[in-house]
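Input record (one chain):
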Amino acid sequence: MNGTARRVWALLYRHLALYRRSWPRAAELIYYPVLQMLIWGFTARFIASHPVTTFSLAGSMLIGGVLLWEIALRSQMGVAVSFLEEIWSRNLGHLFVSPLRPSELVAGLIGVSFLRMLVGLIPAIALAWLLYAFDLFQMGPILVLFFANLMVMGWWVALAVVSLILRHGAGAETMAWAVLFGLTPFSAVFYPVSVLPMALRPVALALPSAHVFEGMRAVLLHGAVAWGEMGWAIGLNVIWTAGAMVLFARQFRAARVRGALISIGE
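The corresponding structure, as predicted from the sequence alone:
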């Protein structure tokens, strides 16, 4: 093997070693193709199983699903990416030399997330109205509960992602983009929970988002508010938020003991 080949192999092996030692990086290779197949496969099954008379509402349900799911995605990404920016700028250790508490960090990240979500979502809502004549606000006051539940879900998912990053370091940074996308097939964004195989329905029903989107379809199809679904969404958000807060607190303490707040990302 000549010098050029050895150098190329050395660089190739360096990246292969990263995948071998980091399961999040390895999982990402098959993650998104499988995810896309699940989402659109279940969507196709839903459309194929309904009569043509329901197609008039199909566009509204798809656009509504996209817009509402963006609330959860932007909320989660706002917290996770803002946290990663502190890591990338080597500022995390400096923050906690100050009197800043972990709860205050989380509150600040949530505030940034809320603003980023609004900035990203408002133009999308306007374009949906201008280009597709879809008015998200036609759902009425219940839309406030849809917004709130999806934002809270995005935040607790983000706390879980931050906990993974504190535990696994830079190898888990891809989880900031991957986790909530991975929940999309089970969140019933574009189709009802009944389309899923029986074995997967309990997974969907354990997520607040599935109940929000079931509620959205009830409003669009029947003009009725599914208060039972809203109750489940709120209750599940309370449970998952509490669990994510406990996980974050434990991983933060462990990272502080290991000195990872300074070395993470290096």
